[in-house]
Amino acid sequence: MENLQSSAAFEGSILTLAPWQQANSLTGFKAELAGVLHVAEGAAERLMVQAGALVRDLPSTLAAMECGELGWDFTVIIAEETCLLHAAEVAQEGIDAFEELLIAKARDARLNSFREIARRRRERAYPETIVPALVELTPTGPCASADPETVCRGSV
Prior knowledge:
Residues about 140-155 have low confidence and may be disordered. Helix 2 (about 20-35) packs across helix 3 (about 40-55), helix 5 (about 70-85) runs antiparallel to helix 6 and helix 5 (about 70-85) runs parallel beside helix 7 (about 110-125). This protein starts with a helix and ends in a 31-residue tail after the last helix. The protein is mainly alpha-helical. It is built from 7 helices and no strands.
């Protein structure tokens, strides 16, 4: 997948395609992948991103998956957690150590408990990666035109 994405980008640069044309090429690839796998295009795009992260950034996780120590669901959790570390600009050595820690924890855990273990370990070791749980709600429906100072109790 990584090679196909890279070749689409390379082809676009050689042919001096506009950015929207290059994006159209990748969208076509995503649609073909979705058709082959019998999944929605959004799911195909997530699989492309996860597979790319696994191949590029998580060699130990990929090796553990290839030898049967980890399943796909566990590798996705590891990829998601390390992606947050990359976004917080954590040093690569720290990310590699965290990956090894998660691989060791995944071997003895169930999937649901591993997701929580991985999140808690990341938040304790790297508090700057904590994702805020509160989201500001925008009122809709009968209270949408109400005065902002007024509380609409029935819509939430």
